[in-house]
Amino acid sequence: MKEHWLLDPKIIFLNHGSFGATPRVVLARQGELRARMEKEPVRFLVRELEPLLDSTRAELASFIGASPADLAFVPNATTGVNAVLRSLELHSGDELLVTTHEYNACRNTLDYVAARADAAVVVVGVPFPISSPDVVMERVVDAVTDRTRLLLIDHITSQTALVLPIERIVRELAARGVDTLVDGAHAPGMLPLDIRSIGAAYYAGNLHKWVCAPKGAAFLVVREDRKATVHPAVISHGANSTRTDRSRFHLEFDWIGTIDPTPWLCVSAALRFLPSLVAGGWPEVMRRNHELALRGRDILCSALSLAKPAPDIMLGSMAAVPLSDGTSETASALFGDPLQDVLFERHSIEVPVVPWPNPPKRVLRVSAQLYNRPEEYDALATALRELL
């Protein structure tokens, strides 16, 4: 499978979850679109872009179970989260819920908007290792008060790779009058999605990760009853447009200034290519990646004498295991530990080691994509036994 990607064959790449990897076929399509754009930029960006976006939007909406009318393209899930949070009208004393597993960039945005409005960020402690999705459900619901305005929560946690019980959480909070913003950065292409059924007020997801579109492809879905109050993080021409042939939502989000829109327009190519690699299409892609992630986790747990840190039902195409303590002074949010560099430099293994919940505590997270093989996790386990 690896021949379909540009990945360095000398590197054991177990970090698809960070930035994804785009197949050659999809990159070729992007090259065609870029050449078309540069041949006549005005024609492409002014006359042709909107119909191309609408066509891609319809195909993506079908894949994720959303209405095209509620779907906007954004460069990444963090930008979608920013758009929602910075559109909220908050007041002093309002409370915003978040768990200890939230992605650092989105947590920073939450802290920023809360500080500006004198609102409070209430952090819900969710353990890892964890025994059941019920633990997440109970702790989040218990934190709701009559001042709670919004819950920001990952569908799949970045550092610890846990699939959270989003549908149940959204329902329970909606019954208490609380909206949910789902940070679904990892979900598209890893899990079957039906955003309508989830029912969240807001859902942001990346397409450069498990869908394997080019970097810069992501989406934001805003429920119909919340669209009037949500604006993009970048205010541009759509804010005062008098056009009536398109929704205000799309007028604002589809044009935030001159950018390269080809990552969005390559989503269709990615949605079609990845399932063509295996009999059974997308369900089989997801099943294979899930089974390989479980196998990789079991190899690591055996090598490090660890119990399984989470039940199988809480994992998708990634798995994390806790490691012995690292050093606090070298930790960062993206790449937090010297062990990651040592694994790369000495063993040619690319895998993230990140601080969680706080330094010196740390976890190692493996990803599983179609190009990965079980023996790559064996190589990682051998290296870890040598280094730890």
Short description:
The protein is built from 14 helices and 12 strands.
Uncertain segments are none
State mean pLDDT (0 to 100 scale).
96
CATH superfamily of the largest domain: Type I PLP-dependent aspartate aminotransferase-like (Major domain)
In whole angstroms, the N-to-C terminal distance is: 32 Å
User: Count of helices?
Assistant: 14
CATH architecture of the largest domain: 3-Layer(aba) Sandwich
Tally of structural domains: 2
SSE blueprint:
Elements: E1 12-13, H1 16-19, H2 24-39, H3 41-64, E2 71-74, H4 77-85, E3 95-99, H5 104-117, E4 120-124, H6 133-142, E5 148-154, H7 166-175, E6 179-184, H8 195-198, E7 202-206, E8 218-222, H9 248-254, H10 262-265, H11 267-276, H12 281-304, E9 318-323, H13 338-347, E10 349-350, E11 353-355, E12 362-367, H14 374-387
Parallel strand pairs: 1-10, 3-4, 3-5, 5-6, 6-7
Antiparallel strand pairs: 2-8, 7-8, 9-12, 11-12
Helix pairs in contact: 2-3, 4-5, 12-14
Would you write up a description of this structure?
The chain has 388 residues and is of the alpha/beta class. The chain has two domains: 2-21 and 279-387, Aspartate Aminotransferase, domain 1 (Alpha-Beta Complex); 27-271, Type I PLP-dependent aspartate aminotransferase-like (Major domain) (Aspartate Aminotransferase, domain 2, 3-Layer(aba) Sandwich), CATH 3.40.640.10. Helix content is 41%, strand content 14%. The protein has helices at 16-19, 24-39, 41-64, 77-85, 104-117, 133-142, 166-175, 195-198, 248-254, 262-265, 267-276, 281-304, 338-347, 374-387, and strands at 12-13, 71-74, 95-99, 120-124, 148-154, 179-184, 202-206, 218-222, 318-323, 349-350, 353-355, 362-367. A seven-stranded mixed beta sheet has the order 2-8-7-6-5-3-4, with helices on both faces. Strands 9-12-11 form a three-stranded antiparallel beta sheet. Strands 1-10 form a two-stranded parallel sheet. α2 (24-39) runs antiparallel to α3 and α12 (281-304) runs parallel beside α14 (374-387).
